[in-house]
UniProtKB/TrEMBL annotation:
<protein>
    <recommendedName>
        <fullName>UDP-N-acetylenolpyruvoylglucosamine reductase</fullName>
        <ecNumber>1.3.1.98</ecNumber>
    </recommendedName>
</protein>
<keyword id="KW-0961">Cell wall biogenesis/degradation</keyword>
<dbReference type="InterPro" id="IPR016167">
    <property type="entry name" value="FAD-bd_PCMH_sub1"/>
</dbReference>
<comment type="similarity">
    <text>Belongs to the MurB family.</text>
</comment>
<comment type="function">
    <text>Cell wall formation.</text>
</comment>
<keyword id="KW-0285">Flavoprotein</keyword>
<keyword id="KW-0133">Cell shape</keyword>
<dbReference type="GO" id="GO:0008360">
    <property type="term" value="P:regulation of cell shape"/>
</dbReference>
<dbReference type="InterPro" id="IPR016169">
    <property type="entry name" value="FAD-bd_PCMH_sub2"/>
</dbReference>
<keyword id="KW-0560">Oxidoreductase</keyword>
<feature type="active site">
    <location>
        <position position="148"/>
    </location>
</feature>
<keyword id="KW-0274">FAD</keyword>
<dbReference type="InterPro" id="IPR011601">
    <property type="entry name" value="MurB_C"/>
</dbReference>
<keyword id="KW-0963">Cytoplasm</keyword>
<keyword id="KW-0521">NADP</keyword>
<dbReference type="InterPro" id="IPR036318">
    <property type="entry name" value="FAD-bd_PCMH-like_sf"/>
</dbReference>
<feature type="domain" description="UDP-N-acetylenolpyruvoylglucosamine reductase C-terminal">
    <location>
        <begin position="200"/>
        <end position="318"/>
    </location>
</feature>
């Protein structure tokens, strides 16, 4: 069967298993762990054309309210959770509006945007452990959340449900410069800001910077912003495109680094770097897995050779 993906690559899978009920998990017994590939909405992956592994997709989409947390099925579209929160006075996720993908994918790379990370609101994650072949609940402090990283990148877990704890009062995080500038430019007073208005502002801001995958196939940011030791670089290096993180660590703009070496790149006609954001790579049509992989490798090598900075690819690269 063909696997739909937001980068628009032609991808075929040999086997596919949909987890619709807990009973479906028993079907995993006959599949070797190293032959399983867990996929969600395929919005943050670069896939090769022929996948030999069994594709596993979770389709739990229920939302249940408990005394201490909100339990959400891993197969629910992230946008649906945002809408549910806005309609039910559950605060905190507004800055994560308009991020593509499923709820189950959110903890894997600890999605974040405009100064907010999803890990701040996760109570626990309910999973199927592929090593023990048992269901288990992993508490937040066991998830090893970091910048775009978590324990779930080990591929040993199938995320079934994510349990959230939300704020009871609306206390928006407006610290991110691009967001603050947007609100100021559009004469939106922070004191009169509502959750729905903030969510709509984030959506508009993202749309102004990032292309719609349905029109221009892409997976969002293609590289992570690198974290470097502050003292390893001159204070004026990438000025205006760097953010001090404290403890001697500085975050650098991967987009700006790409802009600086872009004239040196050999880019195939099937691909292009987005005109309004250099972190976004677009499939012009008929791009192949090798086209993408070779260009990403080329970017990484040139930036390392020129600046001694190692970039990490953000979407998952799956070759088989």
């Amino acid at each position: 069967m063909f696997i739909s993906n937001s980068f628009g690559l032609t991808v075929k899978a040999k086997n596919f298993l949909s987890i619709n009920t807990p009973k479906d998990l028993s079907k995993l017994d006959i599949i070797q762990d190293n032959s399983i590939l867990i996929l969600g909405a395929c919005t943050n992956v670069i896939l090769n054309k022929d996948l030999t592994k069994t594709i596993v997709q979770v389709n739990f989409k229920d939302i249940k309210i408990y005394e201490d947390y909100l339990s959400v099925g891993g197969g629910l579209n992230w946008a649906d959770l945002i809408e549910y929160c806005l309609n039910n006075s559950l605060y905190g996720l507004e800055n994560l509006t308009h991020i593509p993908g499923s709820v189950g994918a959110a903890p894997v790379q600890n999605i974040g945007a405009y100064g907010v990370e999803v890990s701040s609101f996760i109570h626990s994650v309910e999973c199927f452990n592929l090593l023990s072949q048992q269901q288990e609940t992993i508490e937040r402090d066991q998830c090893r959340f970091e910048y775009r990283n978590s324990i779930f990148k080990s591929k040993n877990y199938i995320i079934l449900k994510v349990n959230f704890i939300f704020s009871k009062t609306f206390e928006p995080d407006l610290s991110y410069p691009a967001l603050a500038n947007y609100l100021k430019h559009n004469s939106i007073d922070a004191k009169s800001l509502t959750p729905k208005l903030l969510s709509e502002s984030i959506k508009n801001l993202r749309n102004s910077r990032l292309p719609d995958p349905n029109l221009d196939p892409n997976v969002g940011s293609i590289f992570k912003n690198p974290l470097v030791k502050t003292n390893d670089f001159d204070r004026n290096f990438l000025i205006g495109h760097r953010w001090e993180q404290g403890n001697g660590v500085t975050k650098l703009s991967a987009a700006r680094l790409i802009e600086l070496i872009k004239p040196e790149l050999s880019i195939p006609e099937t691909l292009r770097i987005y005109e309004h954001h250099s972190l976004v790579l677009i499939n012009n049509g008929e791009a192949t897995f090798n086209d993408v992989k070779n260009l990403l490798d080329q970017i990484g090598v040139k930036i390392f050779n020129k600046f001694n900075i190692e970039l990490e690819i953000e979407p998952e690269i799956i070759s088989s």
